[in-house]
Amino acid sequence: MSALRSLQRILPLQGSIQQPSEDINEEPTTEQPSISQPKLDQLIEYVSKFETYDAKLTEYHKKLEPVGIILSDFNQELAQLSSSLISLEQQSTKLSKDSKLQTIITEKLNPVILDLMIPPDIVNCILKEPVDVKFVTNLKFIIEKKQLLENIKSGEQQSKYQNSTSLTQLEKGVTLLESKAVERIRDFIITQIRMLRLSSKSSSQLIQQRLLDVKEAFAFLTSQHKQLAQQLRLAYVYTMKWYYQSKFAKYLYSLQKSRLRLIDISIVLGYSDENHGMFGTSSWTSWMPSATTTSQTPTVPTGQTQVSIGEYLLLFEKRIEILKSKSKSAIPSQIAETSPFPNWSEFLYDQFLMAIMDNIIVEYLFMVEFFYQGNENFSKEGTGDKKIWSEIMFSNVFELGKEFLNWLMISNTSVLDPINYDALGILLTIKLIQEAQTKLHNEYHIPVLDEYLNSCLLMLWPLFTKVIDSNCESMKKSILRTKKITNLGPLNITQHFAQFLSALLRLTQDNQGEPLYTCVTRLCHDFESCLTKCSTILGKKPTEKEIFLYNNYFLIVNILTNENVESDDFIQQQIQHFQLLVDAYKQD
97 and 136 share a domain? Predict the structure, then answer.
């Protein structure tokens, strides 16, 4: 009955099939009724119902004939689909076998193709495209092919195509690409070097950055043609020699045009003829004769500013800041040339020192990274007397620096008096040089400037010693001209000496082997000797002498203590020494 309902949903039938009076699923009885028993009318009725039922079945059979046709067609289509699926399965099996075979063939051919083929894109890049990062990447492909060929020839790598025509063609192609790559790298580097000379506005840092972007290209050129690489490196060194010489010559010219403070003999201890004590006025007229002051004081040159001894000593606090500044940068040449403010000599030299340090650090790092591929063992180059690259490149700049330093030292001198009396300026310059040496060694580990800086120190230390000698001699000679002291208060020279000594002590370092320590010791000894001789002028009263000496030494101790808050052992030794003198002359 369920099948009939399904067909009804597909093809609805009119009317409904009457259920037979008896369930067709019921099992027939075993009893065979006797035909003769039922009544005739009952039999006729049954026959009539049967005929009616048969007629309806016939009607339904006719209606189901299209469904049978549909089912028959569907059955045929299923048979065709099944046949197609079988065919597809067979084709899939065949394709799978072909794919596996193709994979095996590809796995065998792929290494051969990769080893023996040079892609056209790489060839085009090496021949035509700019020398840039992509060019460098393709150089690595050539290096790999070169290594492959060497391994095959040496027998380190077994190959079935060792004597094949393809291998021969590959070797020829790699050789041609190597030659072309070397040629293009050479032309690129030459172009960059020429740009340094063609325009005064060319920035060496920009050109160096372009070269560093393709530093592997120069390493490739070095491996292929070492002599050409040396020639290019030497061409760069000589070009930069000219470049730095022209740049620094212009910069030093601008620095020399700036205003400079004039320091003459008037700042030497004992030179002044008008002295005022801190605790009163003392007539100390003989420390230097007033008659010679006007005649010996030089006129102030154009662009220079005269400095008195009071300004000289008081402005030291401002001058020493040049050693404390950590973020310094050299001033541009335009500002140096046009600035209306007067400068100290150490400030101008510091500008040059910062400029040369900045350029040498950049140049050193560039040379090591680009031309020497990280190797800091430089070979000597050049023609004739061979030198390392830094000696060639910066030799003229070093000479300009020495001439500039010498100009700074003699700018405060005259023909009649060739001594530069700016002891603090000389000492500050020495400390700037020593700081530069420490920075180059400890932070950058660059030894290029050592010889130049040491030569500057060898020139400055004797000048500093001469200034100390001049101060000592001035104090000694003034004693011979001293006739009378009318006040027991501290002398003006004592205040100047204490301030001068305090400035020197603040510039001391732990290295007591420096000439500075010897000079300080000698200066203190000579001053004490002069002060003791001055006390004899007071007469024969020992009390007055002791008060006079006590007042002067007490002033020295106060100045040294107040101005040297952060003191080291050497400064403490000097303070303790003068404190002992104060205690010795102290009145009960």
Answer: no
